[in-house]
TrEMBL record:
Cellular compartments annotated: Cell membrane
Transmembrane segment boundaries: 20-43, 55-76, 83-106, 112-133, 145-163, 169-190, 202-221, 233-250, 270-295, 301-323, 335-354, 360-382, 403-422, 442-465
Source organism of this protein record: Oceanobacillus longus
UniProt topology in membrane: Multi-pass membrane protein
InterPro entries, per database record: EmrB-like, MFS, MFS_dom, MFS_trans_sf
Keywords: Cell membrane, Membrane, Transmembrane, Transmembrane helix, Transport
Record domain Major facilitator superfamily (MFS) profile: where: 17-466
Protein name stated in the entry: DHA2 family efflux MFS transporter permease subunit
């Protein structure tokens, strides 16, 4: 029986809903990287050590990663409108707390509240887009999501770099705050109830296990790059995370209404596209994390130059995502994925011959080509995978996709940074620049091999065009 709370999707005006969702997600993702270049200023102002200050970005990633897996449960429990307003209000409240924070403890509290709202935003947006757009138009819709994913993280360091040079670091939060408030006001009037509530039973043990599992793994891997793999806290976090996650997954198979549905991995195309998405995210994180370290610490570039090196590629990815979405709607994902993963692999190999004298133009052009390739993979792979799922499982598919990307980003960063630091043949206390760059080149060799695995997987995907997928699902009664 049709849920009376849910609006008739055929008669919904999509444009205002899309606008508030895109704005909310953009602000949420922007905040992940907004503090990147402001950390030194915050350290000086609040008298913090580097390790303490890094928690401002680590805690945002951790809470974000903990919230995403339970988003499917929240979507099944709350109406769309209420959940979006709660998430956006939490994010805005956190921003307000950060803006007026007198000390580190209050600033951390604000970041936690921010991240709790932000973690819900992306899976909720993807789920709504998949429901309000027919399957043959989902590529174009998800292309707009790709624009946000590509553009917001790269814009964060550029905005914060300029603002903290001109004003106090709190200006970062005062910039976001009015935009978030305006978005809440508009969404109050335009947001509709799209998702159907199934009222799953609250399984507190699953929520605890999910928090410990994903939180432990994310913290363990993100800390390994800084403290080393043998650090007691890192090892303990990984063990607690792995054990908790194992029990969480096993428990989900026993529940009639699981918090996160792992049975979706029985679908081969969904599984392969999720793995491809994870590999692509590792490729994205590899370049956006390792290249600025190389540029500033080994090649003598400034922080502004490393930020400007990333910007053209981010603009290309943002510009191309909607275009690739339209191509996906017409031809399907297979050829986009093959071409995109080929470019990702080639550019990874092009970054294996770096020296202390490599030019800024070379780094910028290769990165731009790399982001062009990533724009052909990210949302087409996601949409192709989610198109395989019935409507009732779209919330679980969106939550799982975003969760796996968070895990991939954390693991990928830890492994590649470790490779970069351990393969540099340091013969003296102070390594020569060329010796340090060798570690960067080795990290990109590993990134290239990982990308090559993704390319091989893309050759195995045989899915048709979205229109053909729609017809197949109708025949199976699975739409």
């Amino acid at each position: 029986m049709k849920n009376k709370e849910v609006e008739d999707i055929q008669n919904i005006n999509r444009k205002p809903i899309v606008a508030v969702l895109i704005t909310g997600a953009f602000l949420a993702i922007l905040n992940q990287t907004l503090l990147a270049t402001a950390i030194p200023h915050i350290m000086q102002d609040l008298n913090l050590t580097e390790n303490t200050a890094q928690w401002l970005t680590t805690i945002f990633m951790l809470v974000n990663g903990i919230m995403i897996p339970i988003t499917a449960f929240l979507i099944d429990t709350f109406t769309t409108r209420r959940l979006f307003l709660i998430a956006m209000s939490a994010f805005t409240l956190g921003t307000l707390v950060c803006a007026f924070s007198p000390n580190f403890a209050v600033l951390m509290t604000g970041r936690i509240i921010q991240a709790a709202g932000a973690g819900v935003m992306m899976p909720l947006m993807m789920t709504i887009f998949l429901l309000i757009f027919p399957i043959e138009k989902r590529g174009s819709a998800m292309g707009m999501v790709g624009l946000v994913i590509g553009f917001a993280p790269a814009l964060g360091p550029v905005i914060s770099g300029w603002l903290v040079e001109q004003y106090h670091w709190r200006s970062l939060f005062f910039l976001v705050l009015p935009l978030a408030v305006i978005n809440i006001i508009i969404s109050y009037f335009v947001m509709k109830n799209i998702t159907e509530r199934t009222f799953p039973k609250v399984d507190y043990l699953s929520i605890i296990l999910s928090t410990l599992g994903f939180g432990g793994l994310l913290y363990g891997f993100s800390s390994a790059g800084n403290y080393g793999w043998t650090d007691t806290v890192v090892i303990s976090s990984m063990i607690i995370g792995a054990v908790s996650l194992t029990f969480f997954i096993l428990r989900q198979f026993k529940l009639k209404q699981p918090i996160l549905e792992f049975r979706i991995f029985k679908n081969k195309i969904y599984t392969m596209t999720t793995i491809i998405g994870m590999i692509t995210f590792i490729g994205l994180i590899a370049s956006e994390t390792i290249l600025p370290i190389y540029m500033q610490n080994m090649a003598g570039f400034s922080a502004l130059e490393s930020g400007m090196m990333i910007l053209p590629g981010a603009l290309i990815m943002g510009f191309m995502s909607p275009i690739n979405g339209r191509i996906f709607d017409r031809f399907g994902a297979r050829y986009l994925l093959i071409i995109g993963l080929s470019l990702l692999t080639i550019t990874s190999f092009l970054y294996t011959n770096l020296t202390p004298d490599t030019s800024l133009s070379y780094l910028t052009i290769v990165f731009a080509v790399r982001m062009f390739g990533i724009s052909m993979i990210m949302m087409p792979a996601t949409t192709q995978g989610l198109n395989q799922l019935p409507r009732r499982l779209l919330a679980h598919g969106s939550a799982m996709t975003n969760t796996m990307r968070q895990v991939a980003a954390s693991i990928g960063t830890a492994i590649l940074v470790t490779i970069m630091t351990t393969t540099a043949p340091i013969t003296e206390e102070q390594a020569l620049p060329m010796e340090m760059v060798h570690g960067v080149n080795m990290a990109f060799y590993v990134a290239a091999v990982i990308s090559l695995i993704g390319l091989i997987l893309s050759l195995l995907i045989r899915g048709g065009t979205p229109a053909e997928e729609r017809d197949r699902m109708k025949m199976e009664g699975n739409e």
